[in-house]
Amino acid sequence: MYKNAVTLTDFLLEDERKNDKTTLGLTILLHQIENVTKIIAAHVKASGLVDIIGATGKTNVFGDQVQKLDEFSNKLLFDMLKSTGQVHALVSEEMEKEVIVENSKGDYIVYFDPLDGSSNVESNIPIGTIFSIYHKDGGLLQKGNKQIAAGYVLYGSSVIFVYTSGSGVNGFTLDPGIGAFLLSHPDIKIPKEGKIYSINEAYEPTFDRKLQNYLKNLKNGDSVARYVGTLAADAHRTFIKGGIFLHPASSKNPEGKLRLMLEVNPFAFLTFQAGGIALGANNKNPLSITPKHIHVRSPFVMGSPKNAKAYLSFQ
Ligand code: AHG
Ligand code: MN
Ligand code: MN
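# manganese (II) ion complex -> structure
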């Protein structure tokens, strides 16, 4: 048992030893994100209980006041990232403004979506945490292709930590018995093609004609539809099974709904690193966009090369 287990911590230290772009500061940061997401995972497991316990006004199973999971996750990530001393600035989906960490000598800017898919929490449907790391020298509004590292944690039937620092994508599954993330998905490569398409079809009437024709065409083929409504879950399934995920612009969301810096760019970085295709506004590479502000939104399509090509043939 565990004879060739590689923990995330081992992997981070090895990556730092091998890869001169991976500094000790980045290793400390990623290790802290690992620590935070283990705590969030424990809270997610008990999230169904929090409301019951919360209704009586007692403290929850972890001894702290009952808090909504996304506020809890946001505060935990914020406090624990700040305490590493490696962070120059933090940008959270839950906070309108960026926070410049006072008197910090940290080199990094961390964008994070502390709880992705929060509308799914009470239905016990998988949710995630997303992070994206830049070097501070480029300032707050850098193109996505300047990301140093990016990743997500998916709190599903198991808890998986997936990240890239520019040399491929690796996935680590949490072993609850020893409380460590173990390398379970080395060098993730998205299948060249897949049968699954993933889009919120409720918005079909708000899509442009080209997209409507593409979706109609899919229904005449042998595709299957899957849609969780948590980006981290729909994207992770696409990495594993192939296919295509779309959260496109619509008459309801002309700029798109997803956040460029907090959701689209981390997953675009991961998608390209896994051999897939990612598309943003006007079906261009989202990583080449200079954001106008930290919460700018973007349409997003990601998936297997063949599926992306078929989508583009309708554009
Ligand atoms: P968040 O909970 O962080 O706001 O993210 C929700 C996002 C994303 O996770 C998902 O892909 C998308 O919302 C689903 O949007 P629809 O409910 O409009 O399909
Ligand atoms: Mn989100
Ligand atoms: Mn969120």
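# post-check
The chain has eight helices and 15 strands.
Residues 8-185 form a domain with the Fructose-1,6-Bisphosphatase; Chain A, domain 1 fold (CATH 3.30.540.10).
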